[in-house]
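Training component of the fellowship. As part of building independent skills, the fellow (R.M.) carried out the full modelling exercise for a liganded target. The chosen ligand was flavin mononucleotide. The inputs are recorded below so that the supervisory panel can assess the work.
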Amino acid sequence: MKRKGVKKMIIISISSFIILILLALAAILLAGGLFQNQTYLQPWNKNYAAHFKDPRIRLAAYGLLAANGHNMQPWIIKLDKDDPMTFYLYADASRMSPKADPYARQMMVTQGTFLDYVAVAGQSIGYPATITLFPDGSYNEQQLAQSMSVKPVAKITLKRAQPQQNPLFRAIYIPDTNREPYKSTKLSSAQIDALEALNDSRIETKIYQDKADVKALGKFALDSAIIEADTRRVMDEAGAIFRANESQKNKMRYGFSFEGQGTSGFKLYFMQGLITLFPSLNNAKASSDLMIQSTKAALEHTPAYAMISSDDNSRVSQVKSGMIYSRLTLTAASLGLAAQPVSQALEEYPEMNKQYTGIHQSYAPKGQTIQMLVRIGTPTKNVPQSMRRDVMELVRD
Ligand SMILES: Cc1cc2nc3c(=O)[nH]c(=O)nc-3n(C[C@H](O)[C@H](O)[C@H](O)COP(=O)(O)O)c2cc1C
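Fellow's submitted model of the complex:
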């Protein structure tokens, strides 16, 4: 009798324990946003752009999907009131990342990434674009933010033409940034030729995959990530735009999230739930450790690097480098390759000085500026799409 009673009690305790665990799990997943709509992913829907009658907005809806520094999406669109086929791109000065990007160089590269998506989409949907950079002249660098709000980065004029099939168009929907490990397979000479052909008279794309270069560039990338992980104000700037759960991502559809670390499915909701219920898990030390660990894991599985360098460091060259970077991600994706910028060694804040000088002395000996340093290789895993704002938020009077 007594043994039976003990057995029953054990069964009840185990059942209660399991129910408690299940309830806790459900609470975590719900806090993480399970069952919530993901409106922040709407712009990735293949029918999204077509909802907009005005071809200028339709093209901006494609531009919005481009890679961009800190996922700040710092783009403003102004429609020409007199010409229904012309619009202007402005840099959104309220969306700079001044700690990591004190001279707004990456901000300008990010203007270029947008423009090339517009160009590729324009050709494919029958509105080829003529892009004129800085039609009203370059910025007043002494009053940069104010200058950004009055001087457009580009005037974009559309024509009506027969849509032209472009294999790069499909690649617009593939996430640009894959931070996962890549296969050890080297790039073929055909792949290298296709990527190195992405040039301009003053801008060069080069692929490095010799053992010595991969080692040297990997060391620059890792050493500079370690420095950044230890530079509190730069980490805090990125931490402030981390979206912990679905509600936050729907409300502020820019910045970073767990998707960027390749997390998806139940694990995504679980991680989001944990951070939402226990925000202290997301502390400065945890972010620094994660940054170093994930950078190390990625760099150890990187067969090659791409580098985009410009002869000068003018605003025009920065924007053009961004256009070439978008063309590089689209070309890479259409060749079955994935890419991830590793920008830290190229950042211009004082703590990074030694890395910046070192990489330029070794890889830009004629005084060029390295605008992008990028891991490239065959992906081991597809990665989820990241947040994007509604295109109408970009449009201003
Ligand atoms: C100028 C520039 C610099 C970037 N630097 C980094 C970087 O250092 N590390 C990284 O993981 N991603 C970097 N990215 C990628 C962005 O974080 C990414 O494009 C953005 O978060 C949106 O995600 P998606 O490209 O997957 O759509 C950079 C992108 C640009 C345009």
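The panel noted the following from the submitted structure. The longest helix spans residues 2-32. Residues 364 and 370 are 7 Å apart (CA to CA).
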